[in-house]
């Protein structure tokens, strides 16, 4: 029976540290600020953005929520990003995905000032991550949160086989760089991968971010492996479930994250932590 990684407890610990750091910065006249931008009325996105906004306020971080109609043009959105780039009270800019179809995600990502790119998706920040430059630069929050969980639970990475299922720029790709920088042997799979089971069975560390409910079952997992489930899927019953069949895999894995209560809370805690990092780097270098 696996040890269950408690993402909520670790997130709470990180949030407490963030709260203290904000208070300390406030004494120096620095007030970290985040702007969360949303375009359209996707109900899940609205819930996520409101949660982020509330959490920021709770930790003493100034938060502004910029909500735009679904038919906003790309140029209008770019102008709003430009205003936020120039706004000295804003340290972090987060644009909630998905964006409406008339807007090109990459153009928006590239328009965010790298120093304010709290999602770490600007090519300059991604490039620094892949180049393993130890400068202060933001890293995508979900992957950074996962690395923190692995550290907290003392999971050895060096020389271990890590398999990532899912190749997105938000999760899979930054994780590939982070695990590679930690000297793990990393393989990345996507929907066109042949014989996924054969591959996942080699994983000492298996990270699943495909958005497919119960894609990974016990037969796909090596005994004693660390299994990190990034997926968030809402079933027709309304219940939230991950990409991993938790009940069967927990009997075989060494460590496992639950959904909910695993990666999700860590992503928000990391977002807050990184907002404060950005404020600190901008003011102190
Ligand atoms: P995405 O749709 O951008 O990418 C999914 C990736 O999975 C693709 O690379 C695709 O090739 C791969 N894939 C899809 N089906 C597959 C299959 N059958 N076998 C192998 N690979 C397959 O998704 P994303 O934005 O990376 O999100 C993935 C999941 O993680 C979603 O459920 C999302 O809600 C969740 N998510 C959770 C958090 C969190 O904080 N917990 C953060 C981001 C995303």
Write up this protein.
The protein is an alpha/beta fold. It is 41% helix and 15% strand. The strands form 3 sheets. A 6-stranded parallel sheet has the order 1-11-8-7-5-6. It has a 3-stranded parallel sheet with strand order 3-2-4, sandwiched between helices. It has a two-stranded antiparallel ribbon with strand order 9-10. 45% of the residues are buried. Bound molecules: nicotinamide-adenine-dinucleotide. This is Bifunctional protein FolD. Belongs to the tetrahydrofolate dehydrogenase/cyclohydrolase family. Homodimer.
Label the structural class: alpha/beta
Strand numbers in spatial order across the main sheet: 1-11-8-7-5-6
Ligand kinds: nicotinamide-adenine-dinucleotide
What proportion of the residues form beta strands (DSSP E)?
15-25%
Order of SSEs: EHEHEHEHHHEHEHEEEEHEH
* Bulk shape: globular
Q: Tell me the count of domains.
A: 2
Number of helices: 10
Helical fraction: 40-55%
Spans of at least 5 consecutive residues with low confidence: none
The CATH class of the largest domain is identified as: Alpha Beta
User: What value does the average pLDDT take?
Assistant: 97
CATH architecture call of the largest domain:
3-Layer(aba) Sandwich
CATH topology tier name of the largest domain: Rossmann fold
